[in-house]
Specification:
mainly alpha
């Protein structure tokens, strides 16, 4: 179910109506705190979702297994309730509310919540086995939870030495350290410096990381430039975020700008 696309206009309309109701809702945006009329809207959406073939199939299998289980100690057959009334699946209601709230706030993030930064270990040609081993060990140490801050600071020094020796991806890990506070206090300026060093060397993961950092700072045009470079190199995260910026209207294309300028002169 996680990989299916829900193309259902009825559900879309109901989600839109729910998002409008949430606009006026007071207090927490969770099922238990909503008015009865808004709860009914949520229930309707859940039951509409239950009609989707894949969901209906899974719910039928669950009901069958539950029937078999309760049949061992109950003589009367259990009632098959609508999905919205099945207490074991109450969490679905709050997930629906969350999506409606995202819709209300123009946040289109259905598939990127699990998106993680990916990078390739692009190492220069070298016969120095110890240097290569040191690079991997230092990069691994930064992300480990069981090592001390002192060990992470030592790893940072190793990465700086390796970067000076031509290991361009070492700069990426230094950027991660400053961005995420690994062995140092978080510093976006330092993170940007190191990501930029690696990005200029052609590492698409750093181009993407620099793009996200700049986007968070509101520097959209710079962010877009680095996203584009990473996207052209095949970085799927960058491709996604670049498309998302266009979807949300954060970026105006060059052709649109030319059109706007022409209209202003008329």
């Amino acid at each position: 179910m996680q990989n299916i696309v829900c193309d259902n206009p009825a559900i879309g309309e109901k989600l839109l109506a729910l998002s409008q109701s949430l606009e006026a809702a007071q207090g927490k945006k969770v099922y238990g705190y909503l008015k009865k009329s808004t709860k009914t809207q949520v229930d309707d959406i859940v039951d509409e979702l239950a009609k989707l073939p894949k969901v209906a199939e899974c719910y039928a299998v669950w009901n069958k297994l539950r029937d078999e289980l309760e049949g061992y100690y109950k003589d009367t057959p259990r009632q098959h309730l609508p999905l919205s009334q099945q207490k074991e699946f109450r969490a679905i209601k709050n997930l629906v509310i969350q999506e409606a709230e995202n819709l209300r706030r123009n946040i289109f993030t259905f598939e990127d919540t699990d998106m993680v930064e990916k990078y390739d270990e692009a190492l220069p040609a070298t016969n120095d086995y110890n240097a290569v081993l040191g690079y991997y060990q230092a990069a691994e140490t930064l992300g480990a939870n069981h090592v001390t801050q002192a060990e992470k600071r030592e790893a940072l020094q190793t990465l700086e030495q390796l970067r000076d020796g031509g290991f361009t991806m070492a700069a990426h890990h230094l950027g991660r350290a400053w961005r995420d506070g690994l062995g140092v206090l978080p510093d976006d300026e330092e993170a940007g410096f190191w990501f930029r060093q690696s990005a200029k060397a052609g590492n698409d993961c750093s181009q993407y990381a620099l793009g996200t950092l700049l986007q968070e700072q509101g520097r959209i045009e710079e962010s877009m430039a680095w996203y584009r470079q990473a996207a052209e190199a095949g970085n799927q995260n960058a491709q996604y975020h670049l498309g998302k910026l266009y979807l949300q209207g954060e970026i105006v294309s060059a052709s649109d700008k030319m059109k706007e300028n022409a209209e202003e002169k008329m």
